[in-house]
Amino acid sequence: MMRVRFAPSPTGQLHVGNARTALFNWLLARGHDGTYVLRIEDTDAARSTRASEDGILRDLRWLGLEWDEGPDVGGPCGPYRQSERLHLYSSYANELLGAGQAYYCFCSPQKLEAERAAMLAAGRPPRYAGTCRAIDRAEAADRIEQGEKPVIRFRVPERIDVTFQDLVRGEVTFNTEVIGDPVLVRSDGRPAYNFAVVVDDALMEITHVIRGEDHISNTPRQILLYRALGFAPPRFAHLSLVMGPDHTPLSKRHGATSVSEFRAHGILPEALTNYLALIGWSPRAAGGETPEDVELLPIDELARRFALEHVGHSAGVFDPEKLAWMNRQYMRRAAPARLAAETARFFVARGFVRRSSEAALAYVESLLPMAAGSVDRLEEIPERVAFVFQFDARASVEKPAVADVLNEPGAREVVAALPGAIAGPMLDRDAFRAAAARVRERTGRKGRALFHPIRVALTGEAGGPELDLAVPAIDRGAALAPDAGVAPIASAAERARAFAAVAG
RNA sequence: GUCCCCAUCGUCCAGAGGCCCAGGACGUGGCCCUUUCAAGGCCAAAACGCGGGUUCGAAUCCCGCUGGGGACGCCA
Question: What per-residue confidence (pLDDT) applies to A122?
């Protein structure tokens, strides 16, 4: 039975790099009928916050990466928060101490820092010198009695090779020569990372540890700890990291990097997971499929095809442009009601919707055909249809693009004829076309020479969604009840009159 | 500095010795569609880091170089 885990430390927002690690674990578990465990690594009391933890859980759920066992849902191997497992770590630490596999170290942080600096300066690997290795039990007990607060270090065997089969990289070997004795338990009694992960992964019966490549050099220490503790090590797989366009680690200065930021900007979760899955991996096309067919796949299909052996070895650059394209694809495919619900908050932020009432949501949904598929993110949708909510004839004639349209031959004639051609609310395409036909009859203009002036007169813009959609959208909005929750919208007839008055 | 990992179009991937004068996607350029702006369709340009081997044959295997990344914490 396969068991995998995602083990974030709650010290900030869920980053897309970590989200990708979470995703790969999830894909593997779901593709193999395995169990996906979420564990919170909050042993760093100073930096961990419950707010971060809540945010990470929320973001993972938003992405659709539900876990089978975790801090909030429980499970047979709990608790799933390291801060609640402290007794386990000290018990195993004592076991190691008793067996002589660990020892107390009394070196001060300042002394260690000085040693590190000296070794680095001397061109040697800055590893712990082993100063306290020889302190015997009696002396240690004595000094602790005196009030000294030692750490507990793991006694790493000298000069042996530690080899493991990495599921993505193949055989990897480290010699313990370059590994200093790691701290297992800090002077405040809390466990250090390398110790806590091993105890937890072993006790939680994790079979596959899939994590970022930044952990690969921790692996030999951890394998040694598994041995010392008498546990069978799991299989390891190290994922290459995600970089910014300049090949430096992805960070704030590259723009949005956290899952919640992408959500805030109107990226759909399925677009983000699909995109992330394709950094360092790609589904194989099979059975008559072309490579193009497997670019966009739902997350369950991704899971069905996912294979660690086919995960790439090199770092990938995060490309916001491709994410944007993918989001466009998913926006186009999304169910209208859902898209409306997801987009409403952006209309509210813009002041176009005052209250997310049922009527307002229905109206937003009716606007979607003009925008979804034309823009990259949900947050751009209100801007795309802003002409519906904002109309100022005087301000728009000042715009160079609008002025250009008015200067086209016969344009003012069309604008002047428009108010008289509008018989009443144009609630559908045919009503609009009938009005346009009347203008055509009176002015003799057609095609671009007819529609372009009509566009500027009714929308105040030189460009935008097709008028067959835009004009009915305006008049349906104008017909909304004042308490519908939507900001007041001027009707096409009012617009035509106001525009003719200033454009004449 | 030492150790570890990595190396195909600008970017993400395909390629697991002959099917490759290298395929797909994003982006870019052009054309088309068009009642405007987007979107969409079609076409195009664009890569095996370098040097040695191995082999009848190498993008694919080996070695070196170069370049990139990671680790070396009482952070995780």
Answer: 81
pLDDT at site A121: 82
| Rounded Cα distance, A260 and A345, in Å | 15
Contact A209, A236 (CB under 8 A): yes
List chain A residues with pLDDT less than 50: none
Burial A416-440 (b: 16+ CB within 10 A, else e): bbbbebbeebbeeeebbeebbebbb
Query: Which nucleotide's C1' sits nearest to the alpha carbon of A314?
Result: B6
Virtual CA dihedral for A102, A106, A111, A115, nearest 10 degrees?
A: -20
Provide the total of helices (H) and of strands (E) in chain A, helices listed first.
22, 11
> Which residue type does A59 have?
D
Establish how many alpha carbons lie within 13 A of residue A358's alpha carbon, considering only the half-sphere containing its beta carbon.
0
| C-beta separation of A295 from A274 below 8 A | no
Q: Which of A282, A124, A157, A280 is nearest to A213 (CA)?
A: A280
Percentages helix, strand, coil for chain A (3-state, rounded to 5) are 50, 10, 40
Tell which strand B nucleotides have any atom below 7 Å from a protein Cβ. 1-8, 10-15, 23-27, 35-40, 68-76
A234-258 pLDDT, tens digit per residue, is 999 999 999 999 999 998 889 899 9
Residue nearest to nucleotide B13 (CA to C1'): A282
